[in-house]
Every structure is written in C-alpha cells, then in structure tokens.
Amino acid sequence: MMLFKQSLRINKRLIGISLSAVAGSFFIALILFQLASQFRNWSERDCQITFEWFFFMLGIVYCSFAFPAFRTKEKTMAYLMLPVSISEKFTFEILTRIIVFILFMPLMFWLVANLEGFIVHHFVPDLINYKLSFGTVLTVFTHNNTTGWAIFGYIQIVLLAFIVAFTGASYFSKAPLMKTIFTLSLIQVGFILFIYLLYKGFNMKEVSFSIERIFFIKSEAEAVIFFALSLLVVNMSLLAIAWFSLKEKEA
Amino acid sequence: MIQIKDLNFAYPRQQALFKNLSMHLEAGSITGLLGKNGAGKTSLLKLLAGQLHTQSGVVSVNDHNPRKREVSMLNNVFFVAEEFYFPAITINDYMEIFGPLYPKFDRSLLQTILSEFDLHPLSNLNSLSYGQKKKYLIAFALATRCQLLFLDEPTNGLDIPSKSVFRKILAGSLDENQLVIISTHQVKDVENLIDKIIILDNGKVIFQQTIAEISQKVCFVSSPAADAEGVIYSEVIPGGYRLMMPNSHSETEVDIELLFNAITRGKKLS
C-alpha cells in the first residue's frame, strides 16, 4: 500500500498525462478508422478489433517499462535500498503493470468509444453503430468461446504477451522491449532450426502421425486443456524468472 | 554490528578486488574508510548494503545477510552514494513519502539540519544543484537515525561553509548505537570527525586502528629537517618537512593524510 501511495504522489502528473494521451489516441484512432469505413460501414466488430490492437500494443509497451528503477544505476541503487520487501516490490509491479492495465483499459476504451461514438453520431448521422457494449470489449479475453478451459486459455494468451514484456523489463536494464523481441526471435529461430534438423536428421518424412492421438491427448477438449495449462506453466515460469532477476539484481 | 570474514569479490571479467578480506566493526564510532583509487571503498560499502553480492565469505550486517535485503535490515541502513537519484518532488513531499519507511525517522532533526544547510522545504529536488541535493541526502540520512550510515564521498560537491556544517551536524546528531562509515579522499574534510581509520589496499585491510590508539603510538610534527631521530615517515611541505614519529612526549592531532601515505608505503606504527 505504501508503494502505491508513493508511486501516486511521485508520478501523479505523469499518470495524468499518460491517461489523457491514451484516451486521446483512442478517440482519434476511432475517428480515423470510422472515416476510413465511411462511417456507414463501421461495426461493433471493427471497434472490437481496434480495441484488441490497442490493448496488446499498449499493454506490451507499458509492461516493458516495468521496474523503471532498473533503467539507470542511480535509480537502481535507490530502489534496492528502499526498505520494502522484495515480494512487495514484485507484487506492486505486477499489480500496476499487468493487473491494473487489464482491468482498467477495457473500461477506459469502452468509455472513450461510447463518448466518441455519441459525439461523431451527433455530427455524422451516417455512423449507425456508435454504441459499444462492455461485453464486446471483454471478448478480448474470450474470443466468443464459452467453455471454461478455452476462456482460461485465451486469458493465458493475453497474460503471456504482457508477462513476456514484464520479464524482459526485469532482466534487461537498457532497451528492454527491443532486447526482449530480439531474444524471442532468437528462441523462435532456434526452435525452427531444431524442428528442421529433427525432420531432416531423423527422416521424419517417413513417420506418420495420428491426428487422433498425440501423447496422452485423446480429444479436442483435452487439447484445449493441455494448451491452457501449458500456457499457465509458461507464464508462471516467466514470472519466476522476473522474481529471481529482481531478487538477484545488483547495483 | 558488521562482521566480514574471508570475503572474496570480483567484478565480472576482472581481477579479484577483495581476497579473504576480514573486518569487524561495532556501533558507536565514525569510521573513515580510506584507500587509493580503485581500492574498493565504494564496492565494500555496496557489499555491506546488499547492492553487490559476494563470491564467497561471510558478510553480516546487524545479524543480517545483506544479500537478502530484508526490510528489517534496510530500514536500519542508509547509503549516501556519490551518484544518486531523486524524484521530481519537493523536499517536504520526499520527507512525507520516504520518512515513514524508517521507524526512527526524526522529522524535527531533519528540519533543523535543513535550516542549517539553508535548504527550503518547498524547493523541488530536481531544481537543486548537485551540492544542494547532496546536502539534502545527508540531512535525510541523519534524520532516519538508522543504526548504520554509509557515506560515500559525502563532502564532494559541498561548498566550504557546508563542509563545516556537515562536520558539525554529523558530530552532533549521532548517538552511541550508530555506526557511520565514511569513504573519502578528502581526508581534511573529516579530520577531527572520525575516530577510527580503516585503510584498504590490494584487496585487504592493511590498517585498522582508532584515532586514540594512533595518537598513543605516533605523533605528527613539522620540522625544518627530515633526519630527526626515529622518524617513521616524512614528507616535504612548504618550509620544511612533516614527520611521523614514535610518540615519546605528548599526543598530537593525527595527520590522516601523512598517516595514509606512510601506511600505504609499508611503514608501521612502531
């Protein structure tokens, strides 16, 4: 709680400016996209896509600015000497970078989109679909899936995008987003190379796979559960890396 | 209070900075940590504060392992670094926000020191000069009443009047449960202030004695010639020589600079 109060008092101006900038960006982007669709063809689905794009882009960038104290040596020293436990510091970063963002952004977009729609509709009656339901905004977490495991899986995907950036910010001091993207690209290239070598080396062309059953997975429903749990494990592992990188940080 | 045993430390891809370094310090003193450039004074303070991690050996600060950075250790340790960071808030806001993190924080002491240092509580920390920021950091450090204060080159950037105010407030605002370690090259600034001297050289503590012990053993005198009987070490000064000699008569003020030069050149205090 102390860290929240501190952060609010120190960053109140920055928070105010950032929120205004984000709300302004939503507003302008919506007008531009509606203009591109000549207003008449604008649908709630377009609004949802706009939100998803903003949600992931802003979220990844915002999470990549986690642990701002690690960007300079002096700030790192001050942060490490702050008499607050490592778990509190870590929890504070997760809450403010990931949880607050996930809870606050849909609400903010919903408010701005409805305000923008109302204003534009007033001047341009061609904009018919100017109202946005909150449920539509929330489909970013469900993608219209109804089963619990599928929704859980989608939530893990959303979290994965943010947690990767968050972990990168805890690990890299300078240009964390760029370095995280570079590292991910290297891992991806390595993975593709591995599969390629496996394919070539073991002559996998000759091996036939049964789509009906891979390892212990016997059905689509089980595949969804496996996928969701795998993502959960990946997310938890990334958070563990972030935790240890905070714990072992040196000035 | 501080216990270091067989400490080994090296920065990545560099030679060992400390090799089996051992040291023991108790509360109730202002200790001067001296050493040549690169001797590891700042690194040692960082190791004690948990900002760097040892490769091997034991470091204990108030019965805590500094590496763990536990709250019960951190709220009793304050590090005044040479390079530091302040958020863009006023002096008052900083006090309101960060003061409560230290259980023994003394608001009235801070206000007294601020007025001694001629700092206005409504000034924004970012608009202050380096020297003013440093004065505020020292004032805040003293007001925390932490048991352990690490001051790294505290007088760097301070103007001449502020240096004497610094000496006055440091001497006047400490109690016997506190230990202050001052790492400095500006030995003249801390003369008459420190009561124990530690000299680091080649990764080891080569000297560790109180001012009283030094005064009993040696005296420091000026002389027109350098060949007086029993001279341990001498240096040319304008108009003659400064000598370090065995103390056979009365105690003199310890000339820390001369002592440091003598010790780092391998001289012994009898």
Q: Can you tell me about this structure?
A:
- The complex is a heterodimer of chains A (251) and B (270).
- Chain A has 251 residues and is mainly α.
- Chain A has one domain.
- Chain A is built from eight helices and no strands.
- In chain A, helix 1 packs antiparallel against helix 2 and helix 1 (2-36) runs parallel beside helix 4.
- The longest helix of chain A is centred in the middle third of the chain and has 38 residues, at 86-123.
- The model of chain A has no long low-confidence stretch (mean pLDDT 90).
- The mean pLDDT of chain B is 91.
- In chain B, strands 5-6-7-3-8-9 form a six-stranded mixed β-sheet, sandwiched between helices.
- Chain B is globular, with a radius of gyration of 20 Å.
- In chain B, helix 6 links the parallel strand 6 (148-152) and strand 7.
- In chain B, 29% of the residues lie in helices and 29% in strands.
- Chain B is of the alpha/beta class and 270 residues long.
- Chain A binds chain B through residues 2, 5-6, 9-10, 72-75, 77-78, 80-86, 248, 250-251, and chain B through 46, 49-53, 69-71, 74-75, 77-79, 81, 83-85, 87-89, 93, 96-98, 100-102.
General form of chain A: globular
The count of β-strands of chain B is: 12
Low-confidence stretches of chain A: none
Helix content of chain B: 25-40%
Number of helices, counting only DSSP H or I runs of 4 residues or more of chain B: 9
**N-to-C order of helices and strands of chain B:** EEEHEHEHHHEHEHEEHEEEH
Beta-strand residue fraction of chain A: under 5%
Q: Largest interface, counted with CB-CB under 8 A?
A: A-B, 21 and 28 residues
Describe the biggest sheet of chain B?
6 strands, mixed
The rough form of chain B would be described as: globular
Our count of helices of chain A gives: 8
Number of domains of chain A: 1
What would you call the structural class of chain B?
A: alpha/beta
End-to-end separation of chain A in angstroms reads 25 Å
Q: What integer is the average pLDDT of chain A?
A: 90
**Strand composition percent of chain B:** 25-35%
Number of DSSP-assigned strands of chain A: 0
- Percent range of helical residues of chain A: over 70%
